[in-house]
């Protein structure tokens, strides 16, 4: 029994029409409709916008769905999120309900809030049989939601290679899409650790090497800053991804993994890919150690130092990792730099010391 089922059953416990719809009790709903003027086929909950048809579709009661539609239930009724019964059925993998709704004229490409179609919802939940049914009825695989994602993009994140293949069979160019911030399905699959999908996208589609989103981030950067070293290795080997590419702020991927606290990814880049542990950004001269210190990643900071990272390196403003850690209130990093690494508190180019950057009392106490 799903959590949503329990919630809806409790929510509608005192509303017979909706409670029976959740349970799929066809006979009692028939009796209720024939005997009561209060409860009719399109009874709508005032707060949620749910109807018996939507609830029956949500929980897979296809016989009840059929009955309600034969009694002229509104197949296109929308709740307060803009979802129709077809959205509910598709999202919950109820293929028989999907078929019944479509036969009664449901809009296969109906848009809910944020412009999601039933196909997008089915792809997000990996309901292959529902996807096949929606495609059979002409669902538009190129339709974009408010963020600029189509169903293929969503399947790259949440689905399987089987689903990606199904969508490509409908439209061979559906892979050639990007979101409003210029992120491709390859970016998304890499970020979410979908190794098989990344492999499929590289081999079956024509993504250019090191495509960048609006921030200058490549799929390789996404894979590593989220800790997916195996995907990164594949992209480097099979897609010839360049570990030395820089984003719009002049950061290489080692800066990003240090900022994200990704120890394994950072060590992989240093030991396997030979990246300079003291590489500086082109925008402000920060090193990976600066990022690790600012974000409070103590174990990673120690690892960088063990691989030759310079704890005394300064950025373009003359600020060391100590300055950034003090300003960010990272007491454990400040202690490590002062007492273990013996970093002196030198002033930056404006004459300001790390001690003066400290705001939190526990950090100030370390300097005292």
Structural description of this entry:
- The protein has 23 helices and no strands.
- It has helices at 3-11, 16-23, 26-35, 52-58, 62-70, 85-91, 95-103, 118-124, 128-136, 151-158, 161-170, 185-191, 195-204, 219-225, 229-238, 253-260, 263-271, 288-295, 298-306, 321-327, 331-340, 354-357, 361-367.
- The longest helix is centred in the first third of the chain and has 10 residues, at 26-35.
- 45% of the residues are buried.
- The model has no long low-confidence stretch (mean pLDDT 97).
Task: Using brief descriptors, characterize the structure shown.
mainly alpha; single chain; 0% strand
Task: Sum this structure up briefly.
With 368 residues, the protein is mostly helical.
Number of strands: 0
Q: Can you tell me the overall shape?
A: elongated
Radius of gyration: 28 Å
Poorly predicted ranges: none
Query: Largest beta sheet, briefly?
Result: none
Number of helices: 23
Strand content: under 5%
């Amino acid at each position: 029994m799903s959590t949503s089922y329990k919630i809806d059953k409790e929510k509608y416990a005192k509303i017979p029409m909706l409670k029976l719809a959740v349970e799929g009790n066809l006979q009692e709903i028939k009796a209720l409709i024939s005997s009561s003027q209060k409860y009719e086929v399109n009874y709508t909950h005032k707060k949620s916008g749910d109807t018996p048809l939507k609830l029956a579709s949500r929980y897979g009661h296809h016989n009840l769905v059929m009955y309600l539609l034969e009694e002229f239930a509104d197949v296109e009724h929308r709740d307060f999120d803009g979802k129709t019964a077809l959205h509910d059925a598709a999202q919950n993998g109820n293929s028989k309900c999907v078929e019944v709704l479509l036969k009664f004229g449901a809009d296969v490409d109906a848009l809910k809030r944020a412009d999601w179609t039933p196909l997008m919802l089915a792809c997000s939940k990996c309901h292959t049989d529902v996807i096949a049914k929606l495609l059979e009825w002409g669902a538009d695989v190129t339709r974009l939601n408010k963020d600029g994602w189509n169903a293929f993009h969503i399947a790259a994140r949440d689905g399987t290679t089987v689903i990606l293949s199904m969508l490509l069979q409908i439209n061979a160019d559906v892979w050639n899409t990007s979101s409003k911030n210029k992120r491709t399905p390859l970016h998304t699959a890499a970020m979410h650790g979908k190794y098989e999908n990344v492999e499929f996208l590289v081999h079956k589609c024509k993504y250019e090497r090191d495509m960048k989103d609006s921030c200058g981030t490549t799929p390789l950067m996404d894979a590593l800053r989220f800790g997916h070293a195996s995907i990164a290795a594949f992209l480097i080997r099979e897609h010839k991804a360049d570990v030395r590419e820089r984003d719009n702020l002049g950061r290489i991927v080692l800066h990003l993994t240090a900022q994200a606290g990704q120890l394994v990814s950072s060590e992989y880049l240093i030991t396997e890919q030979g990246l300079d542990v003291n590489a500086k950004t082109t925008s402000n001269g920060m090193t990976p150690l600066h990022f690790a210190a600012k974000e409070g990643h103590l174990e990673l900071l120690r690892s960088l130092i063990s691989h030759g990272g310079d704890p005394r390196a300064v950025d373009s403003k003359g600020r060391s990792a100590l300055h950034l850690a003090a300003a960010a209130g990272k007491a454990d990093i400040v202690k490590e730099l002062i007492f273990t690494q013996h970093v002196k508190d030198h002033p930056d180019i404006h004459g300001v010391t790390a001690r003066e950057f400290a705001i939190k009392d526990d950090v100030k106490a370390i300097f005292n």
